[in-house]
Amino acid sequence: MKAVCWHGANDVRVETVPDPKIINPRDAIIKITSTAICGSDLHIYNGYIPTMEKGDILGHEFMGEVVELGSSVKNVKVGDRVVVPFTISCGNCFFCNQDLWSLCDNSNPNAWMVEKQMGYSPSGLFGYSHLFGGYAGGQAQYARVPFADVGLFKIPDGLTDEQVLFLTDVFPTGYMAAENCDIKTGDTVAVWGCGPVGQFAIKSAYLLGAERVIAIDRIPERLEMAKTYGKAEVLNYEEIDVGEALKEMTGGRGPDACIDAVGMEAHGTDLMSFYDQAKQAVRLETDRPTALRQVIVSCRKGGHVSIPGVYGGFIDKVPMGAAMNKGLTFKMGQTHVHKYLQPLLEHIQNGKIDPTFIISHRLPIEEAPHGYEIFKHKKDNCTKVVLKP
Ligand code: NAD
Ligand code: ZN
Fold first, then answer.
1. How would residue 167 be classed by pLDDT, with cut points 50, 70 and 90?
2. Helix (H, G, I), strand (E, B) or coil at 160
3. Same-domain pairing of 251 and 289
4. What is the ipTM of this complex?
C-alpha cells in the first residue's frame, strides 16, 4: 500500500510499504477513504517529537471502511463506515472506565521502556512516535486499529467523509478545550491560535454558552475565518500588545478563560531543531512558550486556563507565580475523543456545526509532502489538508 512515511525533520515521503495485518483478536483493518494532516503532525515534521524512526507511517486523523476483523470484534461488521479516534484506548482499564480515554493504561506497548526513562508513560496514539506506542498511522491506504470494538465509531448513512472526519481529533479537541474552561453564562473566552483546534474551540465555546470569544493569531486568513465563521473578535498578535488589548476589552479584568491552542510554536520556520537532543534524552525544551505565557498573564484572577496545545518534555519560563497568586485553574491533556464522538456527531447531524468549513485543501496522498509544506508554512491560505488515499 501507499503510506506517508517520516524520514527526518521536514522530510516526509510517500512510499510503498507492506499492508497491515490483524495481529490480535480485537484488531480491525480499515481501508482509509479520508485522512487529514494535523497541527500535531507538524511537531513531528518539525523534528520536535523524539523516538520517531525513519519509515514510520504518519497520521492520526483517519476514517474509512472496515475490511477485516479480528475474531473477537462483534459490534462492527466488514463494510461498516467508521471514524477512528486518534487516541488508542482499551476500554477496560481504570482510566477508560472513568471516561479518561486518552489516559488508557493498556494501549502503549512501549510503556515499560518509556516509564523507565520518563517516570510515566503516555497512552498509545496512531502515527505519533515510539514514545506513544509506535503504531503505524493513518496517512495511508490501510491501517490496523487495535481495540477495534471500542476504537471504531460507526457513521450513519447520509453524512459525507468531510462532515465526520474531524470527529477523529480536532473537533473533540476544540470542544474539550472549551469544556475545560468551565464556561458560565456571560463568560468571555480568549483563544490563542486560529488553526483547526482554535477554530473548533471558538465554535465550541459559543456552543457551551460563552458570551464573547476573542481569538488571537497572526495569520490574516485564519483571523478572518475566526471572525466570519466563528463570530469571534480577533487580535493580531504581531500588530498589538495582546495583554493590553485583552485588558481593555474586558474592563481591566481579563478573560474568564484562556485557551492555548498553539502548543509548541511552529511559526513556519524552525525555531530550533530539537530532534537530536530529544532523541538522546527523551526530553524537549523550549524557552519560548509565548502563547502559554500570555495565557497565564492575561487570564483574570480565579479564571480557567485550558491547554489543548501539545507540549513535550520540559518548557521553561512559565510564570507559575502569577498562576498561583491569581488562583488559576489549569486543565489540559490529549483529548478523550471516545467520550465526545456521539454528542458531537449529534451536533453535526442537527446542523449546530458543519466541520467542513475548516478544509482548505484536498490532495491525493501522493501530494502529502506538498500538503505538509503548505500547512506548516500556512501558504496558499492553508487551514486544513485532507488527503485522499
Ligand atoms: P496549527 O499549527 O494549524 O495552528 C496553530 C496556530 O497557532 C497557527 O495559526 C499559528 O499562527 C498560531 N500561533 C503560533 N504562535 C502563536 C502565538 N504566540 N499566539 C497566538 N497564535 C499563535 O495547529 P492545530 O492543528 O490548530 O493544532 C494546534 C495545537 O493543538 C497543536 O499544538 C497541536 O499539537 C495541538 N493538538 C492537541 C490535541 C490534543 O489532544 N490535546 C489534538 C490535536 C492537536
Ligand atoms: Zn491531530
1. very high
2. coil
3. yes
4. 0.99
